[in-house]
């Protein structure tokens, strides 16, 4: 149990407890380097005193624009220890988005990671009169602007002019109801809103999450999801900190498979897309192998699937099946698990729905993915599967300190100490989702089963109502299609239309491999995707999905796009969910064509 009532006090308690042990791990110049709890603490305190020397006041906002790296946590913990409020900004945000957050939050200070991120701030500074200082994490090159400082300069200022007693007083004076952070929801529609989360929101959610997913000081977590998102911040950062474990920072999302091998993590948080890619990579490797290997893999998956089913249904495994599974494990699954390192206890999945088929595939191979559910507004965890109590396809049981109920229209409602204080400077928006007696409307549709396991069926705003009056959950259809290795993303269209259509973002690496094997030219791309053989691949995927769907859910037409959806082009959120409104506007011409308009 956590006895501390603020994030700052929790951190400093762990620093005293674990001292010289490794707290963080980062790869610099090709080598992994450990940062001890003591060194972590020194960096946090020096930076906090530097900010205070620059005039940081209690409860004012400090913006943080950075990729995942140790310095992100130095800033976060320094600001929270000094009883101020941090405002994370996604490293993928464009200058206009950065400007909106700086203006809305009223931040006087912004800490940025690189020259590239600083350039975004320089571009919009003239439009943000309240902004006084930018602090650059990377070693500073020559900057004539006196409003730009380096991280080292700020720490040196803390050494020279900082007041340790004033810092300790700020830390002690911070109370549990004080605001800790403003997290601007990426959202799939509308301008981002600042979610106000207090220290109590975080501490209470930590209590509930650690009961569900007990992490200890022997755990090593590999971190690659953006810390600016509440999922990674709570599940991949604060929970590991509270448990006294070690956090290793992946070099990039592309390097995650290599970094897993190097770090051998015991736990790891991810969004479903990583598991989908892993699943697709395995199937591609098998498909390209000899016939005997394919048959062996198929047999092994059948055996693993039967064992998985019996485990999840809490049934005894017969002796003959145990023997088969032992052989299958040695010949098929051991190598697959080896790619995940040799110490993985479980994966944690969140941020978007995980297809049940993906969870079952990994479970059959002896890899447990514990899916959870939450929102930024609930700090974020609402429910989670546990290592000893899970149902594949569900998002687990609600945390013990939260109440969950289902409204008459199927919307999931939540009440408890981790529900946000509200949206910053937006009382009307707050009243739309938060009742006076504390019930938060999630906007998600779902149900609780007889064992109190929660199932999500769709986003309330995403539900498609066809011209024939049929209600369709697009995510279910999309998840079916994404099981195909040639499909990277898909967006189902059909609201107020006679039938469903699909916009498909291909997995170009797999598609180009297929093209090379079959003598199909891959350039120019717009002609490549229109090739009859390529179109046939996607028609086969549509037909396979349609065979598993009700007639009114089936896809009548599709368009293969010449590029994947990305964060940079605005179609995806940082947790890789499709922004349906953006996609609908951007590809209006292609959509209209599918409906003969």
Task: Please give a quick description of this structure.
The chain is of the alpha/beta class. The protein has 21 helices and 26 strands.
Structure report:
With 597 residues, this protein is an alpha/beta fold. The protein folds into 3 domains: 7-174 and 213-266, ANL, N-terminal domain (Rossmann fold), CATH 3.40.50; 272-342 and 345-459, ANL, N-terminal domain (Rossmann fold, 3-Layer(aba) Sandwich); 464-594, GMP Synthetase, Chain A, domain 3 (2-Layer Sandwich). The chain has 21 helices and 26 strands. The strands form 6 sheets. Strands 2-1-11-10-12-13-14-15-16 form a 9-stranded mixed beta sheet, with helices on both faces. β1 (22-28) and β2 form a beta hairpin. The radius of gyration is 25 Å and the shape is globular. 47% of the residues are buried.
Show the helix and strand layout.
Layout: H1 7-18, E1 22-28, E2 31-36, H2 37-53, E3 61-65, H3 70-81, E4 85-89, H4 95-105, E5 109-112, H5 115-124, E6 133-136, E7 148-150, H6 151-161, H7 164-173, E8 179-184, E9 194-198, H8 199-212, E10 220-223, H9 230-243, E11 246-249, H10 256-263, E12 267-270, H11 272-287, H12 291-312, H13 319-338, E13 346-349, H14 356-364, E14 369-374, E15 381-384, E16 397-398, E17 403-406, E18 411-415, E19 422-423, H15 427-433, E20 440-448, E21 454-459, E22 464-465, E23 471-472, H16 474-481, E24 487-493, E25 500-506, H17 508-517, H18 525-528, H19 532-546, E26 555-560, H20 580-586, H21 588-594
Parallel strand pairs: 1-11, 3-4, 3-5, 5-6, 6-7, 10-11, 10-12, 12-13, 13-14, 25-26
Antiparallel strand pairs: 1-2, 8-9, 9-19, 14-15, 15-16, 17-18, 18-20, 20-21, 22-23, 24-25
Helix pairs in contact: 1-2, 1-3, 2-3, 2-6, 4-5, 8-9, 12-13, 12-14
